[in-house]
Amino acid sequence: MSNLLAEHRQAIALSNMGVSLLEKGLYREALETIKDSVVAIKGLYGSQRCRSQNEHDVPVPLADEVKRAYRRLAQGKREIVSISIEVIADDDGFCSIKNLKKNLTHSSNFSICYPIRIDSFNSDMHCLDFHSGIVLHNFSTAHLCLSRLPELSPNRAQKLRDGAYKVGCLANKTLAKLILDDNEATFCGQVLQETSLFIATLATLKTLVSVLHESGCLREAKAFFQRMLDLQGAVLDVGDVELYCTMAASAA
Description:
Order of helices and strands: HHHEHEHHHHH
Number of strands: 2
Number of domains: 1
Shape: globular
Oligomer: single chain
């Protein structure tokens, strides 16, 4: 296994361990672990540039970061306050999108956080961009979860929300650039083949809505909410057409 491939897998492992820490209510530990993943992903882009320019690639060892993450999982102290977490797997397909539809738009589920566990893996650059967007989204989600702890001062909580917004916007921008909307046929094909990309993009928008709403930026939250609804509707329309075609073919 090449150094780059090994580092890529370790970066994903760190993000996934961060998601597990969020599930366990270890929000501070999750933030630190996913931060390590963000740094690792950033290093991968530098390594990719070195490779494209035929420069010597110096790998950054991640063994210490992974060991620290395991210790956090084993020894971390759960916060007293429990935050609603629903982990999404990046390969769940339309099932996740339809479940998200129920939760994203219902006010009683507005506070749920949706970190993403990366289960699929491909070492090409497109996949690195995709994973980068997910890791950034998880980092944003960890900021948001931590901001909700009642013992934090209002200023500290808002700084965390500001961080969540900044990173969340970068996550959304990274993923949105991968969506092909040149024409309807291209978009439909990508929805069917890369459903996980749309799941992740919807999750980033949901987090941004929550961050802005909790920061009192209601106008901006409404704008992101509408973007989320528009994308969700377009994706589900493709899924409904695919289901209809499948049923029609079976009945023929």
